[in-house]
Structure formats: C-alpha cells, structure tokens
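ugh finaly. both done.
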Amino acid sequence: RQKRAYVRVYGIVQGVFFRSTTRSVAKRLGLKGYVKNLPDGSVEAVFEGDEEAVEKAIEWCRRGPPAAVVERVDVRYEEPKDDYDDFYIEY
C-alpha cells in the first residue's frame, strides 16, 4: 500500500548532514520525495512510497544522523500524489 507523509523535524538538525543522510535512507528504502532546510532551523521532508518504508523513514528522522539533536518530529499524512520520480535535496 502506498503512503505519503509530510514531516517537519525540529532541534539541531541543520549543518549536521541531516539532509544528505535522509536522502541516503530514503533512497535505500525506495522512497520518493524531498528534504530541505527551512528558515526557522527545522528540516522539512516528504516521503512517498511503500507504507512500511515511509514509517521506517519517519522513525529514522526521530533519531537523525549522529550529530543531530532531534527535539520534535511532526508528521502529517497526505494522499499519495506520485509527483516525484526520485528523492531529492531541495535548496
């Protein structure tokens, strides 16, 4: 079953390789979507693909890479749109 999740990660999550590691995790899980830094210091991501893979990506975001300090993760589920052909870092 396909699933789509919009995720915002708060804490020390910029400048700690969060985006590049998120991309690696998402690609390994076969997900599509994007990850990007936001001006308020948080990181935004959209994960779309297999339901189990989306949940694994969200769980990974709750920890992040070793240098990250994740304080909060907000998740909003949306209808899958299939509007990405890969997983990207957006700038």
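ok and the 2nd:
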Amino acid sequence: MPKITVKVDPDLCIGAASCVTVAPEFFILNQDNKALVLDPSSPGTKEFSRTVEVTEDQKDTILLAAQSCPTLAIFVYDEEGNQLFPK
C-alpha cells in the first residue's frame, strides 16, 4: 500500500470541517477548531502532519477532503515527496 504525507497548515485552517465531513476516519477538529490528521492504524493520535499507509480508495478520499477545504489548508504528498495537492 502506498504511503502519503498529509499536512494541515493551522494558520490557514478556519475550522470549516469539510475535511471531517468527507473523511472522518482521517480528520478531526481540535479544541481550537483546527483540523488534525488521524491515523486509523493508531487510534487516538492526532497531529497536524503525519505519514499514513493507505489504500488507493483511502488516498482518493483524503484528496477529496483536501480539495473540499475552502482555504486549501491541507497538503498531500506522495512517498517521494511530490506534492499531489494543491497542484
């Protein structure tokens, strides 16, 4: 399975929660209404940036969540460090 890195820029995040709506298994809002990235294989850990092993369907869901962000606060990178979103 591919690994991707998902980063949320807390300075850009406005707490719209569209990422949580699209991919609740990967995103949650913290007490400051900023999105955090979840790792389904490590429940309970929440961070602004993490590398996760995903299926192609999960990768597509994360990309849709990133695309749904009104401020483009979510960045997605492939295993080689190439930025997948935003382009």
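summary for the 2nd one i guess: The mean pLDDT is 94.
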